[in-house]
Design goal:
Chain A is of the alpha/beta class. Chain A has five helices and five strands; from the N terminus they run βαβαβαβαβα. Classes of the chains: A alpha/beta, B mainly alpha. At the A-B interface, helix 1 of A face helix 4, helix 5 and helix 6 of B.
């Protein structure tokens, strides 16, 4: 499974990568981008199965990245998990309205990440089976 | 508003104007009116000039206060300290992540080796006991390492706040610069050519020094 981790902090990208590896995802298949702009370019260039993104980033924020993904025919079905320190109601609602698949508030634990990822993949599997 | 203005003037109209209002001498009336207007303008300009000088002095004092505060010596220094803190905390977090990444494969191989050992050592065989203990230890190590990795997200959380403070200082710096530019112009200083557009820290510092900061 190819995963794109998007965050402007290199420490956070590494933390998410570590946790994904710990959860059994293949390390070489995890790629990183430091803002929404470079993420969308990477998503257009190669196939990914999941995007894990921060909210606050320069150039293009996580919510704008999410909207850009949903607006693009070839990417709109991409599962997007938002991992962010933004925990106010309006922002969570905005992410939900933009079609986010999961929302994790920092700081989080490996268990929370695992739980949200499992939920995302269960839903995808269910919709895939239904289709 | 016009009506109020006229009413106010009517009440305080100098007697020479009131007389002229009823006289047929048009040019004389206009001349008298000009004199009154000019007097009022001069009052206003004097007040504005005083205000501009006070503002300029205040900004000048602010500028020298900033420079004399000592530590941090200047806004640029303060921003640099924040950048340093950001970098140092990132390096520290990366170092911890290095440890975790180095230890995890070791814990994993301990689990594998212990499982191998348990294929031929069973029951109360000391080798089997040690192997089972090793598995438990390796498992709790992996769990602990994962927690340690997650705990490093403090760097991201504090880093975001540092970036916000840096952005705030940046906007204060820009506003201060605008104030300096404005008071310089109000006080009648010749506008330096560099004032037109300030895009770098060096230009900002140069502009500030031209105004005596």
């Amino acid at each position: 499974m190819k995963i794109l981790v998007v965050d402007d902090f290199s420490t956070m990208r590494r933390i998410v990568r570590n946790l994904l590896v710990e959860l059994g995802f293949s390390n070489p298949l995890i790629q990183e981008a430091d803002d929404g702009e470079s993420a969308i370019a990477m998503l257009r260039g190669q196939p990914f199965d999941l995007v894990v993104t921060d909210w606050n980033m320069p150039n293009m924020t996580g919510i704008d990245l999410l909207r850009a993904i949903r607006a693009e025919a070839s990417l709109k079905g991409m599962p997007v998990l938002m991992v962010t320190a933004e925990n106010n109601r309006d922002q969570i609602i905005a992410a939900a309205q933009a079609g986010v698949n999961g929302y994790i508030v920092k700081p989080f634990t490996a268990d929370t990440l695992k739980e949200k990822l499992t939920k995302i993949f269960e839903r995808i599997a269910a919709s895939g089976a239904a289709a | 508003m016009n009506t109020m203005h006229v009413a106010a003037i009517g009440e305080s109209l100098p007697s020479e104007l009131r007389d002229l209002l009823n006289s047929p001498e048009g040019p004389a009336f206009e001349q008298a009116l000009d004199v009154v207007v000019r007097q009022r303008e001069q009052h206003m300009f004097r007040a504005l000039g005083q205000l501009a000088r006070d503002l300029h002095d205040a900004v000048r004092r602010l500028g020298s206060d900033l420079a004399q505060e000592g530590f941090p010596g200047s806004v640029a220094d303060a921003r640099q300290y924040l950048q340093d803190a950001l970098e140092m905390s990132a390096n520290a977090a990366h170092r911890t992540l290095d440890f975790a990444e180095r230890m995890r494969p070791q814990a994993e191989s301990l689990t594998i080796n212990a499982a191998e050992m348990l294929k031929w050592a069973q029951g109360n065989d000391p080798a089997a006991v040690l192997a089972r203990e090793s598995v438990m230890f390796a498992d709790s190590c992996r769990e602990g390492l994962a927690d340690m990795v997650v705990a490093q997200s403090w760097q991201d959380l504090t880093g975001q706040r540092i970036k916000k403070v840096d952005g705030f200082i940046g906007s204060v710096q820009t506003t201060l610069l605008e104030l300096v530019r404005l008071t310089g112009a109000l006080a009648g200083s010749e506008m330096p050519a560099s004032v037109a557009k300030v895009s770098s820290q060096e230009e900002a510092d140069r502009l500030l020094s031209e105004f005596g900061f």
